[in-house]
Amino acid sequence: MHHKLGYLKKHYFHYILLAPALILTLIFKYGPMYGAVIAFKNFSPIKGIMGSEWVGLKHFEKVLSAPNFEVILINTLKLSVYGLLLGFPVPILLALMLNQVRRAGIKKNIQLFLYAPNFISVVVIVGMLFIFLSPTGPINQLLVWMTGEPVMFMSRPEYFRWIYILSDIWTGAGWASIIYVAALANVDPELHNAASLDGANLIQRIRHIDLPTVRPIMAIVFILAAGGIMSIGFEKAYLMQTAMNLPTSEIIPTYVYKIGLQAGDYSYSAAVGLFNSVINVVLLVTVNIVVKKLNEGEGLY
Question: Would you list the DSSP string of 170-208?
């Protein structure tokens, strides 16, 4: 006990610096968790959380037996899994390519070009998609010139996932590559010079020098991405929804919004959200165990 008090006195300034972030986390992250109890009650805003009737797992049974929930769950999983599989390697490839650019001025200009889409509002991005992919937009004008017929990209369900995922990669891949670029900046250039003298080509140098450097970061990023696979963004999916593409664009976050805020069924929407969060936690733990076994014991924890 005395040893712990001595340690706290010695490093008290560090804890003072940590305190604001810790307090904000407790208030805005852990505090709202109390509200999840309404998933087990027939919540009434008049009676409040404590005064509402306790119904146990009734709303969860309703979730699992809902006729359209299976489709919504599959839509969410497909959008998340496809996005992870297609989007995860892109920042790594960008970082490896940027690492080969030796002229600082050119490298900075390329980075600026790659990072810029990340700072465009989601609303603006979706507006751009509707303009470019509209029946009279530039892409359809080219298709009409080539095939004679336009394609209703934003109305047909089969195109929704690809538009969502590819636009996500365009806006986020450059920014996501920063962490890998920073890791590669620590690689000693002499390693590459020595490998070149030994006859190693570019692919071999990337495989045996660059990739081992970023592998621990890749493992952590993949675990976090896989753990949040059900936490797909609500705003973009909701903005891209139309009456025609609803069979593939309706996902759990948009479903919770419509049921909870628009229909006023707060308990049912809370049950759906809690069910979603439990799946995320299970995925996080499972993926971390698998990655640790494949990555020589290195994982998130």
Answer: HHHHHHHTHHHHHHHTTS-HHHHHHHHHTT--HHHHIII
- How high is the pLDDT of residue 196? 86
DSSP 137-164: SHHHHHHHHHHSS---TTT-HHHHHHHH
Instruction: In whole angstroms, give the CA distance from residue 232 to residue 225.
Output: 10
What is the enclosing helix (H) or strand (E) of 47?
Answer: none
Residue 165 predicted with pLDDT over 70: yes
How many Å apart are CA 5 and CA 291, to the nearest integer? 37
Count the Cβ atoms, other than its own, within 10 Å of residue 193. Answer: 11
pLDDT attached to residue 257: 87
On whether the CB atoms of residues 39 and 59 are closer than 8 A, the answer is: yes
Output the pLDDT for position 2.
Answer: 60
Q: Where are the alpha helices (DSSP H) in 33-68?
A: 48-51, 58-65
pTM of the model: 0.83
Residue 1 predicted with pLDDT over 60? no
Cα–Cα distance between 43 and 39 in angstroms, integer? Answer: 8
